[in-house]
Design brief:
By secondary structure, the protein is mainly α. 65% of the residues lie in helices and 0% in strands.
Length: 173
């Protein structure tokens, strides 16, 4: 009779931050969106001077939420897969389609990393209308998170697994 596998130690410090990077950034970005929209509404209806910057900050924050959230979904395998037809095919063909799917996804992540990087670099000299910060802050997450999605996807393919705590009320699984 084999002994049970030892329980994994919880990550701490920098290891935890690296492991939970996407969720941490997305959470901060959600807070930025909520706070900036709230402040924009308060200043619009309570004060005589609406905060012009609130919408711009919310837009940038939303871009960060979308792309860092998408990277987290890659990590947890939460993106939808429609494999009804593939499941009906012979095993050899299923394997070939899955390999092709992995190659296409990695190629897409590589393309988006390259294209997003080019776009973010080109946007450096284009300031935002209100805050006058480089538009790179808006477009940068496309490049960075596409690379992050490729890394996380390769980690998942290599057998690294992340699990969502089923006892949390925010369980998406």
């Amino acid at each position: 009779m084999s002994s049970p596998a030892p329980e994994a130690r919880p990550l701490r410090g920098l290891a935890w931050f690296v492991d939970q990077f996407e969720e941490t950034v997305a959470c901060i970005a959600v807070a930025v969106v909520v706070l900036s929209v709230t402040w924009g509404v308060v200043t619009r209806y309570i004060t005589a001077q609406p905060a012009a910057w609130a919408s711009e900050v919310a837009t940038m924050g939303f871009a960060w939420v979308v792309f860092f959230g998408a990277a987290a979904c890659v990590k947890y395998k939460l993106h939808p897969a429609i494999d009804v037809l593939v499941e009906k095919l012979p095993d050899g063909l299923q394997t070939a389609i899955r390999v092709m799917n992995h190659a296409l996804l990695l190629a897409f992540f590589a393309f988006m990393t390259w294209f997003g990087t080019r776009f973010a670099i080109d946007a450096w000299d284009s300031p935002s209308p209100v805050l006058r910060v480089p538009q790179t802050w808006l477009y940068g997450p496309v490049a960075f998170c596409s690379l992050l999605m490729a890394v996380r996807y390769l980690q998942v393919l290599a057998g690294r697994g992340w699990a969502i705590d089923a006892t949390r009320e925010t369980n998406a699984g």
